[in-house]
Amino acid sequence: MSDHSSSEDAASAAPRDVDLDPRALDCAMGVLVEGSTQPALVAVLSDEEILALDGPEREQFAAMPFLESTVPDPAERQLLTRTVLRILAARRDIASEVEAADAEGRPLREDNLLSMVPSPTLTGVLTLRRWTASVTWFERRVEGQTHRLYYYPQDGGVMLEEEVTADGLHFFTVMPQEYAAPRAHHLVDQNQVGGADGAARTVSTAQVETDPELGPLLADTRVLVGRPSPDGAEVTIIPVSPEHVDGLLEELLVGAAPE
Fold first, then answer.
1. Residues near 226 by Cβ (< 8 Å), separated by ≥ 6?
2. Residue 161 forms beta bridges with which residues?
3. Phi/psi class of residue 141: alpha, beta or left (left: φ > 0; alpha: ψ in -120 to 50)?
4. Is 127 within 8 Å of 18 (Cβ atoms)?
5. In the chain, which ranges are continuous DSSP H helix?
6. Which of 77, 17, 23 is nearest to 52 (CA)?
7. What is residue 133's DSSP assignment?
8. How many Cα atoms occupy the beta-carbon half-sphere of 249 within 13 Å?
9. pLDDT truncated to tens, each residue of the chain (259 aa)?
């Protein structure tokens, strides 16, 4: 079976207005430490919670399947955000700047007194998610549902993994870089039923949606890899045999890591 594979430069596809204030940096470093020796699940968020924490105006790079299918209207998302923020506050995942500064033993940020502040862990995860220089992702499509893994390489040989389920739950795990390829392999070819190796084929994302010849090929895929180009985003379909899946995944993930 063909494996189609996907990686994209975050600088062209994801927002880069990262708040690198001292607290955000400290929180990000704290999350990285959690995954310095073995994988550690650090947060689970829904589409709606990410929308509320990031703000409706921020473009999302990772898929938001629940919101895309059930709340496509921007005005409705604004209302949803207010409700979700109340839930996050009740759950103590966000707090006022005064409460957060007191709990963390740090000075108040005078320019942030009227804001609600995410917990240190959530701040760290969101910072790492925006901070990365590149993103590599993999998709598994089964019976009309898509399961995704996004990998955000960080300094020090650590990866942030964002697993997005078909119903819009996001599981964030930090791990040493060497754990990423085996985890991705479990998603894309867990039964080792990939077909023969073959030449890569690159097409535009628009062509993927409209070319009838690609339908049977995409229905029999394992990994989807996309890259930006001067003419718009492209998808590269890479037929790969089971014995070479690990090598391909390692190449994609290690190649995306910061030097």
1. 6, 7, 8, 205, 233, 234, 235, 236
2. 151, 173
3. beta
4. yes
5. 10-13, 22-34, 47-54, 65-70, 74-90, 97-104, 120-131, 180-188, 205-210, 214-218, 242-256
6. 77
7. S
8. 28
9. 333 444 333 333 333 445 478 999 999 999 999 999 999 999 999 999 999 999 998 888 899 999 999 999 999 999 999 999 999 999 999 999 999 999 999 999 988 888 899 999 999 999 999 888 778 888 887 777 889 999 999 988 999 999 999 999 999 999 999 999 888 877 776 555 555 555 556 666 566 556 666 656 555 555 555 444 455 555 556 655 556 566 667 777 765 555 5
Phi, then psi, of 71 in degrees rounded to 5: -135, 65
How does DSSP assign 36-80, residue by residue? SSS-EEEEEEEHHHHHHHH-TTSPPSS--HHHHHH---HHHHHHH
Q: Check residue 198 and report its DSSP letter.
A: -
**Rounded Cα gap, residues 178 and 155, in angstroms:** 14
Task: Provide the pairing of β-strand 135-142 with 2-8.
Answer: antiparallel
Read off the pTM.
0.79
**What kind and span of H or E run contains 96?**
strand 94-96
C-alpha 111/C-alpha 196 separation (Å) is 58
- The residue extents of the domains of the chain are 2-43+120-256
